[in-house]
Amino acid sequence: MSTASSTESSSTEPGSTEPGAPAAATTAEPSGTGAGRAPGRFGALVDRFAPAVGAYAVVKATGLTVFLLLLSHTGDYLKKQPGRGGGANPWDVLGTWDGVWYQRIAENGYDPQLIPLHGFPLATYYENSAAFFPLYPWLMRLVGAVTGLGPYGSGIVVSVLASLVAAAGIFAIAERLGGFRAGVTAAVIWGLFPGSGVEWAVYSDSLFVALSAWACYCVMTRRWLTAGLLALVAGLNRPTAAALIAAVSIAALVALVRRTDGVARPLTAMLITPWGLIGYVAWVGWRMGDWGGYFKLQRGAWNRYFDGGASTLRTVMDVITGHWDFWQSNPVPDLIAIALLIALPGLLVLLWRARPPLVLWVYTALTIATALSSNQIFGNISRYLLPAFPLCIGLAFALRRVRLSSLVGLFAMPAIAAGWYAGYALFELGIP
């Protein structure tokens, strides 16, 4: 993105540049960056994003190191099945669970089928790779073809690079709302968020957040066609892209009604956003000979389905009353999920105080609603809320006037502890 983007017209949504908001701060740079700026557009991009991306990488590397040390200390991964939290080496754990499916797809592609399964109370179909969207394994295959890496190595490369792009996007949005310090802080907080252990694993979460953050930024800077294309591509990555598609479309509709950006660009963005998601689900249904095949597979093989939040409420009551007999109970991840739910209202209040544009509100609200209204593994709420990156922006906005030395001290222990609560607890004490 060009450095000029931080000084473009404000978002079409109310709240993006209200009086009293730090509009001037959105273009502010840390002192001293101007004098030593590298020449050219690339140098300007490095000057702008390096502090946030670098700080994010430091906290992620710290947490990953602690995670691997904990794995080596317990050795429990040696007692577990490969692909289910186990492996020959500690780092193999990063390619387990969903990572196994992505590696299989990258190697062998898809063969969508609904094969009945009998004798299991919660499963009516065999698991099939069609439940996993194709963008991430496509990129794994591309990286493998270019570098010669296997599926595991390619998956790690895609995830790490995507996480850096995501951190840059979160920085760009937060910088626009609250200035440079808020931008860097938001990127760091996202790297410390519960569930962030999948950001540098063979998982598609980092790629999805990268697409979502930059799509929202493009809406804020009125790049409608780019926002629509990013939402379309995100629809090839995860089914929860429905939240991003709705957010971009609603923002475009508001711009269309107000005629702030003409007709063609917002209308085109609205029309193109859903086709990645619709196209993949339709392709799976066509290959299975059942247009509802994707949803039948999710429910019948993985026990994932919309229930209006009934299972979440029921599980919350079970956890807080000490009953651990519900489906896929994992005490440590479940308690982390409870702590995150307790913090959620406060994070929303902080986001409201940051006065974000409509696109961020819609995206955040729908992401949270999707995470809490479906039957799922309760301990994974921390991961399902990881795409709700605007929650990090609200907290960063509140911390933007804290001195740098105090911020470093504030984040030092979470950077270390993240290797446990966002990594070990997720992969070894639960099922991400």
Cα end-to-end separation: 33 Å
Number of continuous helical runs: 17
Helix and strand content put the structural class at: mainly alpha
H and E order: HHHHHHHHHHHEHHHEHHH
What's the gyration radius in Å? Answer: 21 Å
Shape category? globular
Question: What's the SSE blueprint?
Answer:
Elements: H1 40-74, H2 98-108, H3 135-147, H4 151-178, H5 180-192, H6 205-220, H7 224-234, H8 241-258, H9 264-272, H10 275-288, H11 293-302, E1 305-306, H12 310-320, H13 331-353, H14 358-372, E2 374-375, H15 381-384, H16 390-398, H17 404-427
Antiparallel strand pairs: 1-2
Report on this model:
The protein has 432 residues and is an all-alpha fold. The chain is built from 17 helices and two strands. It has a two-stranded antiparallel sheet with strand order 1-2.
In short:
This protein has 432 residues and is mostly helical. It has helices at residues 40-74, 98-108, 135-147, 151-178, 180-192, 205-220, 224-234, 241-258, 264-272, 275-288, 293-302, 310-320, 331-353, 358-372, 381-384, 390-398, 404-427, and strands at residues 305-306, 374-375. It contains 17 helices and two strands.
Spell out the key features of this protein:
mainly alpha, two-stranded antiparallel ribbon, 2 strands, disordered N terminus, 432 residues
